[in-house]
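Quick review question:
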């Protein structure tokens, strides 16, 4: 029965997406998301037998649990956020697509084949692009088209890496390739480089990031939370799997270069942002760049990347849920027009401030621990100059984001607004608190993940 858990995890969201046709579709989606959390917990408690189709190791389990929790939180938030849609076809379609979006991420994380992994990541593009246009606004459609064209073009280049891996090894089974030592070759260098471009486009690495700010800012807030919180880390996971089987010191320099470039450029762009959701989108780029560096540098950097991945997922989800609440109340994402949040939206203010501190690497959030370990790993590996650049970029990003948030929270105004609905407020605060709890969790079980 335990060995069937990966199959059940895939089937549940797909099956419940058919609740589109049911009268009481709302609780069905919450039940589906809750069941995936329960299964992800079981996968973290029990080992499954080695399979030629599924690869569920300690890294996969942690990300699966993170994806399932964000999926549940986003489902609950979305049902409240889109309550004005009532029982409309748009809301039914939206929730069913959320199920399929989650299923495509579960598939990408568990498959034990580079070809199927590539198909899974491409499937996340299709399902998430449809979620972008749910309200059929012209700018939403434009953002969706840009997202599909740029990411699909990048992933097409990424397909070359799959071909090169098969050409070199004669198999695409990930677990088999990880377990064998390989010799550096031009073929594997091409595989690594094309994977960096392909999955790097999905991750939002510079200069392939141009789709990311528009897609994240135009998507409904619960979709933005899934984009930034778990979709991009799924692409980071795919890139890391390729890197594991194509490791080459020359490629390490290349991967780190793209990671550093992304961190630096995102940090400086953050300073000039005026749109709340675009600001958090660029913050995601900054965190993804640091995360990629952590996975590539290995050792303490790997542990830091995992901690950063999980803590950032909850923190960024909380930030986008809070942004959605503000957008609903103020009807604008333009930060200079948002005032006196502390008086008008006290609960959303709490979640927004906690989330902002989390995604900018403030203690006691797990993002601080993760970034500290990655910087420590860079020093230990002799990349001290890169570590200094990363530290400066983190400081710039921290000051840019939190200064703007403080401006919205504490600026005085006679204007009165009401806070969001109870479920939306609760989800935003829970997400932000989970980001802080990651620190405690990893101090207790960190050895399990690292191992």
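Suggested answer, residue by residue:
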């Amino acid at each position: 029965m335990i060995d069937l858990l990966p199959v059940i995890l895939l089937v549940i969201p797909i099956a419940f997406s058919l609740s589109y046709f049911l009268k009481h579709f709302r609780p069905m989606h919450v039940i589906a998301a809750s069941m995936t959390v329960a299964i992800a917990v079981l996968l973290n408690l029990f080992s499954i037998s080695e399979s030629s189709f599924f690869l569920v190791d300690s890294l996969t389990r942690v990300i699966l649990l993170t994806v399932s929790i964000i999926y549940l939180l986003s489902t609950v938030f979305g049902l409240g956020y889109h309550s004005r849609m009532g029982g409309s076809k748009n809301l039914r379609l939206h929730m069913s697509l959320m199920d399929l979006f989650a299923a495509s991420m579960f598939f990408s994380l568990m498959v034990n084949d580079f070809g199927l992994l590539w198909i899974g990541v491409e499937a996340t593009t299709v399902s998430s692009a449809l979620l972008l246009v749910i309200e059929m606004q012209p700018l939403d459609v434009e953002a969706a088209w840009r997202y599909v064209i740029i990411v699909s073009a990048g992933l097409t280049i990424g397909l070359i890496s799959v071909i090169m891996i098969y050409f070199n090894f004669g198999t695409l089974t990930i677990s088999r390739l990880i377990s064998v030592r390989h010799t550096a070759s031009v073929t594997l260098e091409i595989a690594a480089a094309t994977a960096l471009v392909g999955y790097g486009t999905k991750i939002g690495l510079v200069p392939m990031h141009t789709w990311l700010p528009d897609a994240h800012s135009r998507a409904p807030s619960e979709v933005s939370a899934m984009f930034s919180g778990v979709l991009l880390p799924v692409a980071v996971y795919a890139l890391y799997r390729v890197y594991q089987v194509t490791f080459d010191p020359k490629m390490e320099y290349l991967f780190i270069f793209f990671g550093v470039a992304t961190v630096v450029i995102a940090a400086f762009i953050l300073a000039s942002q005026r749109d709340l959701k675009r600001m958090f989108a660029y913050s995601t780029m900054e965190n993804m760049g640091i995360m990629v560096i952590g996975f590539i540098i290995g050792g303490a950097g790997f542990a830091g990347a995992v901690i950063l991945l999980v803590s950032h997922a909850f923190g960024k989800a909380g930030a986008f849920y809070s942004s959605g609440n503000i957008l609903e109340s103020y009807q604008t994402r333009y930060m200079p027009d948002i005032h006196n949040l502390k008086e008008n939206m006290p609960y959303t203010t709490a979640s927004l401030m906690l989330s902002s501190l989390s995604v900018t690497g403030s203690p006691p959030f797990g993002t601080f621990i993760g970034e500290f370990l990655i910087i420590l790993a860079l020093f230990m590996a002799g990349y001290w100059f890169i570590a200094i650049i990363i530290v400066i970029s983190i400081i710039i990003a921290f000051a840019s984001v939190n200064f703007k948030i403080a401006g919205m929270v504490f600026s005085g105004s006679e204007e009165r607004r009401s806070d969001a609905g109870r479920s939306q407020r609760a989800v935003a605060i829970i997400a932000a608190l989970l980001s802080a709890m990651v620190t405690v969790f990893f101090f207790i079980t960190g050895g399990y993940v690292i191992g």
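Why it works: The CA atoms of residues 303 and 446 lie 8 Å apart. The chain has a mean pLDDT of 90.
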